[in-house]
Each structure stands twice: as C-alpha cells, then as structure tokens.
Design a protein that fits this description.
Elements lengths: L1 E6 L4 H10 L4 E7 L3 H4 L14 E5 L5 H8 L4 E4 L6 H4 L3 H20 L8 E7 L8 E3 L4 E3 L6 H5 L15 E2 L13 H20 L2 E7 L1 E3 L12 H11 L3 E3 L6 E2 L1 E3 H13 L6 E5 L5 E2 H11 L6 E3 L16 H5 L9 H12 L9 H10 L5
Parallel strand pairs: 1-2, 1-4, 2-3, 4-5, 5-9, 9-14, 10-13, 11-16
Antiparallel strand pairs: 6-7, 6-8, 12-15
Length: 377
C-alpha cells in the first residue's frame, strides 16, 4: 500500500482530499501546524482523525526534523502547506516567504540528501495568481497580450480594466493557458511561483515525477469561515448571515473562476494514480468566469436572503481584474472534467455554512490593516 504524505492536510483542500483518499487504497500521513488564523483556537472538522490508515503529525514544513519524520517511507507527496492571502502577504513578506518558499526548499533538500528516498511523485498545489493579470486580447490589432499589474494611480482613478500598453485601448479578457507568462503581482503569488520553480528543478534533477496544479478560486464545504484574508464566498456568507451589507470591490464586475473543492481533490487523486509522467503545469478550474456581483447575488439567494449588495469602488493593490482558466490540459492529461457546477456547489456550500457557528466578521479589521499600510484604497 502506498503512503501519501499530505502537507497542510488539515486545511480546507487537505481535509477534503483526505476524506476522498480514505476511500481508496492509500495509507495517509498528514502534516499540519493547525494555525489559529485558519482553524481557530480549537480546531474543528478534523473528522478523519482516527481513521484507519491515517496518521497525523502536528508541525511545520519549515521544521527539518519533523519533515524528515513525515517523509519516512512516503511514496508520494501532496504539497498543500502554504500561507495564503494576497493582501496579508504584502505586509507579512518574511512569513509568507519562510513558509511557502523555504518550507518547500526544506522538503526538497531532505529528498535530495536522502540515501533511502522512497518518494516517486510530488504534486504541488500552486495558484492562478502566478499569472498576475493573465491573458487578454487587444481587438485593435495587437493580438494576445499580458498586461502588467494595474498601478495604484490607475486604480485611484477608478479605471478598473487593463489597457493595451501599445495603443492604450481597452482589452478583452480571455482564458489563461499554462504556457502564458507568469507575472506575479503579490508576495503570495511570488512565493507560489518560487515553489513551482523549486519543485520543477529539484524533481527533474532527482528523477521524481511531478505535477504542478494551478488552482483557481477554490470553494466548498469545510473552507475556513474565520480567515478574513481568503475566500470571497466565506466572507460573503458571514455578512449575509449577520444581515449586513455586502461590499463589492471596484465595480463588482471583476471575474473569477470558481472551482469546487471536490473537483480539486479528484484532480489531485488523478495525479497520484495516473501512469503518465506528468512533469508539467496544469490549470485546475471550471473554465467559466463569474463576476463578483453575480456570485454575491446567487450566494445570498441560496442562503435564503434578499440581496443587499453595495458596489464600494474600494480596491486592493495586488488584486487582479479577471481570471478564467483554459482547462484543456486538465481534460487531456489528467482525463478529468469538472463535475460540480456552480449552482450545485453553492447549494452544497450554503447548506454546510448554515450548520456552522456564526463566526465573527473580521473583514473590516483586515481591511483597516491594509489601509494603514497604503495597500487599499
């Protein structure tokens, strides 16, 4: 029986993956710090603890001794452990770099220096944020372009959409493919891209098969309702349940590619069982763009409330305007087609949310931290 080490396995994606893989013929080893920002003071929802063939180790991926123990006998690694959140990363630079970049380096350093290495495959969950603003088309004749991050002066003028650097005309967002250039616009994105390079270079030199999954906006049952820095659906759900107004940044028309956590877990499973030598980047998303006003309206209705949404024209430096993934590689290489549509996914998410304790609304506090550092307008 194969032993799969899942770093960050007690988090949102990790817990769903563990439940999925528990139904398969794997021995699972979970390494997680159980940080309070994600799990709260008393971690909840770890219902897989005590499951047959499941082992839990509490510790950080930056702790070499603990990672050595966790890797002992593992045949594959699913590397989920990371600090997440675009805004917070801009002023906690060292912590994000330590956990995301250095934590990955520690893992790979142990593999590189082991005389008894058993790991044959690494699956890294990266982020669509490495693309920055992603791909656009200039209909004035300049074709496919990849705009730089929108500058603060442009956002302050409430000019939300990227423009062509050649003709200054508006651009039309299109699906981003894995061969498009990476242009990280936040510290979080930069550390995820660093993870990718580390895994790619080390795996190729060590002869380890690897897969790098660039996840889009993952949502679903079990995501943290306590973390005000990530998860637009969890943030909105708390406001709806408290009966307060939802604030939509910019003009509310920025788009995201929402992918249900079940589809992410199944995609990772495909990476573990395929006989292919993957050794490349694969987008994992729905391939469908949904704007913020639409997702806020649909989520509110699904939670049984009347929409109470205000477009605030606020913005955060490092946020991107649009994103949607080209998922041809997901279909052809992993032979996987997303199964959970947005309507079903929102219904499942809403049903789960209504069973959870009502969390404190921490968004205003988080936004105040960003404003104090001139990272939000």
């Amino acid at each position: 029986m194969e032993t799969i080490l899942i770093t960050g396995g007690a988090g949102f994606i990790g817990s769903n993956l563990v439940r999925h893989l528990n139904q398969k013929a794997f021995r699972l080893r979970i390494l997680d710090t159980l940080t309070p920002q994600i799990h709260g003071a008393i971690p909840q929802g770890l219902d897989w603890l005590g499951e047959r063939n499941t082992e839990f180790i509490r510790g950080s991926v930056t702790d070499r001794r603990i990672v050595e123990t966790a890797l002992d006998g593992a045949t594959a690694v699913v590397h989920l452990a990371a600090e997440t959140g675009t805004g917070q990363s801009m002023y906690e630079v060292a912590r994000y770099n330590e956990v995301n970049s250095q934590g990955t380096a520690v893992l790979l350093d142990i593999l590189a220096n082991s005389n008894t290495r058993t790991v044959k495959r690494i699956v890294l969950t990266s982020s669509r944020s490495v693309y920055g603003e992603g791909a656009y088309v200039c209909d004035a004749g300049h074709g496919r372009v990849f705009p730089a991050s929108r500058p603060a002066e442009q956002l302050a003028r409430h000019e939300w959409d990227p423009i062509c650097h050649l003709c200054k005309q508006p651009l039309r967002a299109v699906a981003t493919v894995e061969t498009d250039p990476a242009r990280p616009a936040s510290i979080y994105a930069a550390t995820k891209y660093a993870q990718e390079d580390l895994v790619r270079v080390a795996s190729e030199s060590l002869g380890i098969n690897y897969a790098i999954l660039r996840l889009q906006n993952v949502y679903g049952e079990g995501q943290s309702l306590k973390n005000p820095y990530t998860g637009i659906l969890s943030i909105f759900s708390t406001k709806v349940r408290r009966g307060v107004q939802l604030g939509a940044f910019e003009d509310g028309l920025e788009t995201r590619d929402f992918v249900h956590v079940d589809d992410v877990a199944r995609s990772i499973h495909q990476c573990l069982i395929t006989s292919r030598q993957i050794n490349q980047v694969i987008n994992v998303g729905s391939g469908i763009a949904t704007n913020v006003l639409e997702i806020a309206t649909r989520l509110t209705a699904t939670l049984g409330s009347r929409p109470n949404i205000r477009v605030t024209a606020e913005y955060r430096l490092g946020d991107i305007r649009h994103n949607v993934a080209d998922i041809d590689r997901l279909r052809t290489i992993l032979e996987y087609e997303p199964r959970v549509g947005l309507t079903e996914g929102l219904e499942r998410f809403a049903q789960w949310v209504l069973t959870q304790p009502l969390p404190e609304d921490l968004l205003d506090r988080a936004n105040a931290e960003l404003r104090a550092r001139k990272l939000m307008g």
